[in-house]
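Many introductory courses stop at the sequence. We go one step further.
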Amino acid sequence: MNYIGIVQKLMIVCVIFCFSFQMNAQSTTHKLYVKVNNIKEPGGSVRLVIYDTPESFLVKKKVYKYTQAIPVGNSSEVNFEFDLPVGVYAAGCYHDVNDDHHMDVNYLGIPTEAYGVSNNPKVKWRKPTFQEAMVDVKKSDARITIVLKKW
């Protein structure tokens, strides 16, 4: 076999390897569809954050993926869509009625704007945990609904 034949075979093997690697990488991501409903006030935007570790959950500067705010208008729900690697995540959101880019709280630190997290855990006097809000995006696309509530 001559030198050119060997190079051609190596190139074919490389192309096949790269193609199969790309196909495998594509199959390890899935969509996470998030519907946020129970929006009671018109206007403003719903801001949603995706977290990928318990340490980052509901910590403002430690987000996995942040989607830009979706304007509410007169709607009672908004929908988000994420392409995420296979894994477990938790989502948190709030209705930023005055579009000031942060959740408003009263003098005790209690939110005055509607908020919610994935799985809608029933907690009042503490923050929900990552485990309570965890969403598994491992086997296929995932769909969740977050119901906004006021404290």
